[in-house]
Amino acid sequence: MCGIVGYVGPKATVDVLIGGLRRLEYRGYDSAGVAVVADGQLETRKKAGKLVNLEHEIAEHPLPKAHIGIGHTRWATHGAPTDGNAHPHLGGPAQKLALIHNGIIENFAELKAELLAEGTNFASETDTEVAAHLIARAFEQSGDLKAAFASVMNRLHGAFTILVVHQDQPDVVLAARRNAPLVIGLGDGENFLGSDVAAFVEHTKRAVSVGQDEIVVLKADSVEVFGFDGTPVNFTEFEVNWDASAASKGGWPSFMAKEIADQPQAIADTLMGRVRADGRVVLDDIQQMSTEQIREIDRIIIVACGTASYAGDVAKYAIEKWARIPVQVELSHEFRYRNPIVTQNTLVLAISQSGETMDTLMAIRYAQELGAKVFAICNTQGATLARESDAVIYTHAGPEVAVASTKALTSQIVAGYMLALALAEARGAMTEDARLALGRELLQLPASVSEVLANIDQASALGTAHANAKSVLFLGRNVGYPIAMEGALKLKEIAYIHAEGFAAGELKHGPIALIEEGQPVIVIVPSPNDVDSLHPKVVSNIQEIRARGAKVIAIAEAGDETVSQYAESVIFVPKTDSIMAAVLDVIPLQAFALALSTAKGLDVDQPRNLAKSVTVE
Ligand code: AGP
Questions:
Q1: Which of 140, 382, 385, 553 stands the most exposed, by the fewest C-beta atoms within 10 Å?
Q2: How far is the CA of 265 from the centre of ligand 1 (A)?
């Protein structure tokens, strides 16, 4: 949840740290802070609130020119978002050590009791501060900072990425990770640390993903990695395929606006090299599994959270219809703790933009313990999910900075379609003609998404017009159902209004009682040509709610004029396969939420109480 950056090198360290924090601010924005060591002196600045408050603080109280430092942007867990609870935290009576932390130290209470008994004074209410005092104390006793650091890491339980600088060792940043992300950026005469590559991508594209229970000793001209037991670890670097401009707004008023507009490219990049012109899907990413093993899969369990779980719901419809494998979709946090039935023939598919969502990581670890193979759909190179899965289908959406997921979702859905078609081929579940036709339809999606975006003003105007709505309901059937839930989630998270997504057929079983005069309802209408004949049923549902006073906005297929008679407004999207329509239908809902939130004057990219990457359970 928190963002972490570290630097050793010749550049102006404060600028490198603030630049890195700006790119990581999506991870948490309750407070921010930095520590540098200059002329053998440790200096820190920290401030509650967004990064801009820290920048003002540094402008008023400038930091000295330094060549080493650490920076942090916080999503509060233990202790309110105050100046005092902001990181870095100082360790030891002489306060020579500064420490930043992402995660939760679960045994902090017992460690704090131990330190309090020795007379240690605490300056914050955080779980983090115990680690700073413990390391400072161990260093005073041994004079060996790395050994002191390692000994304390071995005592901590829970999830942590921790970075430390000490004024008596002014050439090194020490870092450790367990159950929280940490990536090294390799430079020339300089090196970096970050929660993800966005922290340093403007300086270097050479990166190393740090493994579980590993310690990094980072100097300007060297990087060493050790296990918590002190054993040296060999590491391999990878090249970051994002460029720095991809993580900036590029003239758009918000990251969310830019990321909505990025979708044709994100989808095209995700399809690239994986779907041939004739429509055949060639998914090298899952080659770890032989055709024989694919045939033996008797069930797929998709684990994911939030928006990613709705991508999973859409994938379920595609996999079951095209590959004829039973699929269940589970929220990762529910799956892990309900003793699920998983066998060696179960394929667990984890979907996550960040690849760092702790609930999803715990779910796959549990599934692996039970003998399942784990595939991942992930957007972030070097992420823990990618490292720990048996195979990864990367979405190539580029960095998604806005907390509200948009291009990551549509790319995840497209990855799910490709997987479904690859499984269908391996299992001989469809005729080749039908399969190739779907593959060719997939290739049309970027152009169709561009068409939706070309007419997006209509959805935006409707969003603005509903700025005073107290509640908006969303209805859909089949793949329209998860898209309805996604539309509602977008409104909740960025516009703070009550919104709910329902399966349209479920309405009469209770929720229709919510409908009163003037209630806005957005309805995802299936294609009138759909083989499952859902169209007339949804049109009936629209009539039922209109009869009770609902004001209907319909998202319908181009040419579906029947709907116009029953809705106040209709947003038309291009014709495509009925399951692929999910990708097109969701885009007006994103624009609706964006415009409504903007009209309310809210911070679209950094909504209250949230963080982009949820690295605590
Ligand atoms: C989406 O708008 C949300 N911010 C959230 O539901 C998100 O999709 C969820 O936390 C999962 O994140 P992940 O894809 O990084 O695992």
A1: 140
A2: 21
| pLDDT at residue number 45 | 97
Query: In angstroms, rounded to a whole number, what is the distance separating the alpha carbons of residues 43 and 60?
Result: 14
Q: In the beta sheet, which residues pair with residue 33?
A: 46, 72
Residue type, 31: S
Above 80 in pLDDT, residue 147? yes
pLDDT by residue (tens digit) across 260-318? 999 999 999 999 999 999 999 999 888 878 888 888 999 999 999 999 999 999 999 99
Residue nearest to atom 10 of ligand 1 (CA): 306
Phi then psi for residue 62, to 5 deg, are -60, 150
Residues 97 and 148 in one domain: yes
Asked if 480 contacts 585 with a C-beta cutoff of 8 angstroms, the reply is: yes
Q: What is the number of the ligand 1 atom nearest to the C-alpha of 610?
A: 4
Distance of CA 382 to the CA centre of its chain: 14
Query: How many structural domains are present in the chain?
Result: 3
**Residue whose CB lies within 8 A of the most ligand 1 atoms, among 384, 395, 606, 614, for a mutation test:** 614
Cα–Cα dist 598/253, whole Å: 10
Reply yes or no on whether the pLDDT at 593 is more than 80: yes
- Omega cis (within 30) before 88: yes
**Same domain for 485 and 356:** no
- Let me know if residue 252 belongs to a domain: no
Strand partners, 47: 32
Ligand 1 centroid to residue 578 C-alpha, Å: 25
Residue 354 CA: nearest ligand 1 atom is: 15
Find the domain containing 191 and state its range. 3-246
**Residue 479 pLDDT:** 96
- In the three-class reduction of DSSP (H, G, I as helix; E, B as strand; rest coil), residue 126 is classed as coil
Give the binding-site residues of ligand 1, using a 6 Å CB cut-off.
305-308, 352-354, 357, 360, 403-405, 493, 613-614
Cα 216 to averaged position of ligand 1 atoms, centre (Å)? 29
The catalytic residues are 2, 612
Q: How confident is the model at residue 73 (pLDDT cuts 50, 70, 90)?
A: very high
State which ligand 1 atom lies nearest to the alpha carbon of 304: 16
Between the CA of 399 and the centroid of ligand 1 the distance, in Å, is 13
Please tell me the predicted confidence (pLDDT) of residue 560: 92
Ligand 1 test: best mutation among 353, 360, 483, 615, most atoms within 8 Å of CB? 353
Question: What pLDDT shows up at residue 233?
Answer: 95
**C-alpha 74 to ligand 1 mean position (Å):** 18
Atom of ligand 1 nearest to the CA of 405: 2
Query: What average pLDDT score do residues 74-81 get?
Result: 85
- Both 162 and 190 in one domain: the answer is yes
pTM score of the predicted model: 0.83
Q: Check residue 323 and report its DSSP letter.
A: I
